[in-house]
Amino acid sequence: MTDINIRKDGRAGRITLTRPKALNALSYDMCLAVERAIDRWRDDASVDLVLIDAEGEKAFCAGGDIAEMYRTGTAGDFDYGRKFWRDEYRMNAKLAEYPKPVVSFLHGFTMGGGVGLGCHGSHRIVGESSQIAMPEVGIGLIPDVGGTYLLSRAPGRIGEYLGITASRMAAGDAIFAGFADSFVPEAQWQSFKERLCTTGDITSLEEAATTPPDSALAAQQSEIDALFAGEGLQDIHNLLATNDGDLAQKTLKALNRNAPLAMALTIEMLHRLRSPSLTIRKALEMEYRVSHRIMEHGDFLEGIRAQIIDKDKSPKWQYADGSVPAVAVSKILMPLGAEKLDFKESAMKIGFIGLGNMGGPMAANLAKAGHEVSGFDVAGVEIDGVTSVETGPAAAEGADVVITMLPNGSILRAVADTVIPAMKPGAVLLDCSTVDVDSARAVAQQAKAANLGALDAPVSGGIGGAAGGTLTFMVGGNDEAFAIAKPLFDIMGQKAVHCGEAGNGQAAKICNNMVLGVTMIATCEAFALADKLGLSREAMFDVVSTSSGYSWSMNAYCPAPGVGPTSPADNGYLPGFAAELMLKDLRLSQQAAEAADADTPMGEEATALYARFVEDEDGLGQDFSAMLLRFEKRGRG
């Protein structure tokens, strides 16, 4: 392949981009070639490190080769671009997670796809000519290929600034922002590369690296933090427009050139990703939601036309006035369900016990992802792609992971008694039920005694999340078991938070649902009060959903029908999360509070109210948001 030179050189696996006339732009075939190479070298004992560089003087890699995406996209074929992004993002993740040192030499322009190739390795080297940027908003895309991962980890609001201005970073800036690690004068690069290949010893970098140039970004950080402190694009625009400083006015001009929807998406994504649980895969999965939809619903094709094809530099952006509706951002960032980026992990043998409303769709998603799933349920249900067996132990036999989704702690203990003896040593028992903390810890101890891994991983997201593969898992257990189960969490959900030792997943779940139960009651009370004060529900939602009353109960699961995103309220309150299940979780929270001697008066009151609603009124069988109907009918007495 003439565009890329892949070979072994001494103790190094070497990847050199060889299309300098195209600024080493990364094609689809080049992405696949890089992935094949690093897969091959991963377990090759003769390769100690991977070295990535490029020919020519102008660029390491100035981006992805997007001409074919434009040609196919304008013809109405979005699958080519989606396939390109899926495979490229998988390669990006492998580089970020690679078990051996990955050393990249980032001379000249390193932009877009070049950042994905060169800025996720373990040792990223810059020199005097380095210019690194994520300029995607200029063509209607967001900083992808893991760009949001890097930007969300940058100091302060530097990520927002770089992400929506497309500003270039010199060597000192790149190190300050977290896009590079070391400065080595370019005159020394060739001899340093030769030393790396000869010895395979990355510690020689300590001798080669010198003090980097000063960072202009670092000097401007306090001003950038103030100008980019807003929660959304419009807030940032307002802060810039009311500031007469040179930086503010220069930045405002840059923003006026870029796609408003892409900038609004970038800001929202960085805010969502900026958390201790951030991983490269989480960022890439969210980026793929955008790239999957951006040709059909965004400005990507128009941006390419204006900048690359016609070169008129006059794109006709959506929301050209800069006012991007929140719903437009939300639609692009919605989970993709079965189309979710899956990174194509190796297949496992899985036993699944409990194939009800939640367990059934979860098992089906695992089977669709290519895993071998055997399932058992006392009701004898059958799930597409899942092999039905007659007992729990039969499902567990030979499985790498056994997943349970059961009604309560006593049933979990009984199932564990029969399943654990049937599991092979080293397998993992993954319980996704919501049960009491004591039961979770007792089963974990039982599994540990049998030389098994154990995780308690209750879920949030309801039946819709189970079907769409968008659940959140709150996980307790040791690191080794969590690492084994992590690929499965990525299929069944959009987030898995490792909360610590066994039982901590259940602790997190009951604390979370105590918050949810209390806030849903408050949300329903507020709607009922608004009705009686003559305030329309639409006005109520518009105010509260964008101000200090913001909550998941209001914004994502609004209990008032016809208001906000579609929720069970719009389907006659058929359960997404049944009121009796909320009552169960609230009672678990109060049981735990009593055991821990914790004062939880709001949780206690919410438990009592849901008990009346379910057991004495008409809440049984309805969604937990049907609490609104209760308040509509009641006065203050």
How much of the sequence lies in strands comes to 5-15%
How far apart the termini lie comes to 80 Å
Overall tally of domains: 3
The number of distinct β-strands equals: 18
CATH architecture of the largest domain: Alpha-Beta Complex
Spans of at least 5 consecutive residues with low confidence: none
* CATH C-level category of the largest domain: Alpha Beta
Tell me the CATH topology of the largest domain.
2-enoyl-CoA Hydratase, Chain A, domain 1
Structural class computed from helices and strand pairing: alpha/beta
* Mean pLDDT, all residues: 94
Enzyme class: oxidoreductase
Protein name: 3-hydroxyisobutyrate dehydrogenase
Family: Belongs to the HIBADH-related family.
Pathway: Amino-acid degradation; L-valine degradation
Descriptive overview:
Helix content is 49%, strand content 12%. It is an alpha/beta fold. The relative contact order is 0.06. Helix 1 links the parallel strand 2 and strand 3. It is globular. Helix 2 packs across helix 15 and helix 3 packs antiparallel against helix 14. It folds into three domains: 335 residues, 2-enoyl-CoA Hydratase, Chain A, domain 1, CATH 3.90.226.10; 157 residues, Rossmann fold; 125 residues, N-(1-d-carboxylethyl)-l-norvaline Dehydrogenase, domain 2 (Orthogonal Bundle), CATH 1.10.1040. It is built from 28 helices and 18 strands. The termini are far apart. The mean pLDDT is 94. Strands 10, 11, 12, 13, 14, 15, 16, 17 and 18 form a nine-stranded mixed β-sheet that branches. A six-stranded mixed β-sheet has the order 1-2-3-5-7-9, with helices on both faces. Keywords: Branched-chain amino acid catabolism, NAD, Oxidoreductase. This is 3-hydroxyisobutyrate dehydrogenase. It catalyses: a (3S)-3-hydroxyacyl-CoA + NAD(+) = a 3-oxoacyl-CoA + NADH + H(+); 3-hydroxy-2-methylpropanoate + NAD(+) = 2-methyl-3-oxopropanoate + NADH + H(+).
